[in-house]
Design goal:
Blueprint lengths: L4 E5 L3 E4 L4 H14 L2 E4 L10 H14 L6 E7 L6 H9 L3 E6 L19 H10 L3 E3 L13 H16 L5 E3 L5 H9 L4 E5 L1 H5 L23 H13 L4 E3 L8 H4 L14 H11 L3 H16 L7 E10 L4 E3 L2 E3 L7 E6 L8
Parallel strand pairs: 2-3, 3-4, 4-5, 5-6, 6-7, 7-8, 8-9
Antiparallel strand pairs: 1-10, 10-13, 11-12
Helix pairs in contact: 1-2, 3-4, 10-11
Length: about 350
């Protein structure tokens, strides 16, 4: 590392939404340019609930990133009715790396999600036995719960009892947003880890309302108050190996984000590693970036660390206001803003 250049082991994204169809074709190359691997979310419509469906989706993703050195790591969507036998099939496959828990109604395309986690106990037992991780969108969804308290309530009412029933189950607490979540993961055993997004490190809930309602800063879990943002920043400065990069990059068209009922989701795949690098530099923690982005995730999942590297240069550049999303437009995270790290062209670029 020099003042104006940083080379790290090629990173991975441990939480990514790629959609399907034209949207997939538009957004997948952004990730493949930067990352060697990514955990792919299964919340399509209809969701990816079986290994057979995951094979077809994997083929679609590989076609969208043809020419790139990129490996999609697939997941299955857990439902009330997922049979334990599907876990056995998933573990026998070489590409299913986890099961995704969406509480019903928690976020985009989660209507088929779990209504009561105890309905899944037999399947969770099979996952614990097989060593297949459970990737959790950790929000309680009862309508009386304040939207800013949904993560904390989930920890108290669902996650703590779950870890007591299945003490050896590998769990990734996805896109954590609160001090309570950071503390829970820090104090838990080695079988529990968490991903952190760029938006939850860079923004707090003021960003939803500054200068008017800001739909492109709306995501789920929703941005929280400053004390929670500061707790996440403290985590990355600590260098704990229990936390790693997961963008939760989630593309929606400009029209759907700016509609009367705007979609939740922030698209950050266009400049993910550059944004994380800027954040770590602001925190005086550039020496912690490589472990967060490139080591902690594969170590937790039991996968080899990547052998290649990427280089970033210290140079100002302006993020475009929009990118194509099929026939529509997509507004990226930090659109129109200037950031000061730029990924160099690498061998990941198609020849």
């Amino acid at each position: 590392m020099t003042k104006n250049q940083l080379t790290i082991t090629r990173p991975d994204d441990w939480h990514l939404h790629l959609r399907d169809g034209e949207a997939l074709t538009s957004v997948a190359p952004f990730t493949a340019r930067q990352f060697a691997r990514a955990i792919i979310m299964p919340n399509l419509n209809p969701p990816i609930t079986t290994v057979i469906q995951a094979v077809a989706y994997l083929d679609e993703i590989l076609a969208a990133v043809e020419g790139y050195d990129f490996e999609p790591l697939m997941t299955l969507y857990l439902t009330d009715n997922t049979p334990p036998e599907e876990i056995i099939a998933a573990r026998k496959s070489c590409f299913i790396k986890g099961m995704k828990l969406y509480p019903a109604g928690a976020t985009t395309n989660s209507d088929a999600g779990v209504t009561d986690i105890r309905l899944c106990d037999a399947t969770l037992e099979a996952m614990q036995k097989a060593g297949l991780p459970l990737l959790i969108h950790g929000e309680a969804t009862a309508p009386q719960i304040d939207v800013f308290d949904r993560e904390k309530v989930f920890i108290d009412e669902t996650l703590l009892p779950l870890t007591q029933r299945f003490p050896d189950l590998k769990i990734v607490f996805e896109h954590i947003t609160t001090k309570e979540a950071a503390d829970f993961v820090s104090q838990a055993g080695d079988n529990i880890a968490a991903t952190i997004t760029p938006q939850h490190l860079l923004l707090n809930r003021n960003a939803l309302f500054q200068g008017g309602l800001q739909p492109h800063n709306y995501c789920l879990p929703v941005l929280k108050r400053d004390i929670h943002q500061q707790a996440l920043l403290k985590v990355i400065r600590s260098g704990s190996n229990k936390f790693f990069l997961g963008t939760d990059s989630a593309p929606h068209s400009k029209n759907k984000k700016e509609s009367a009922c705007g979609c939740a989701g922030i698209f950050s795949a266009h400049a993910a590693i550059e944004i994380y690098t800027s954040i770590f530099e602001q925190q005086g923690a550039l020496d912690k970036l490589e472990a967060f982005a490139s080591f902690n995730g594969p170590d937790f999942y039991g996968l080899p660390r990547n052998k290649t590297t990427v280089t970033l240069h210290k140079t100002d550049w302006e993020i475009p206001n929009t990118y194509p999303l099929g026939d529509e437009k997509l507004v990226p995270f930090l659109a129109g803003q200037t950031i000061n790290w730029k990924l160099a062209e690498t061998a990941a670029t198609p020849q």
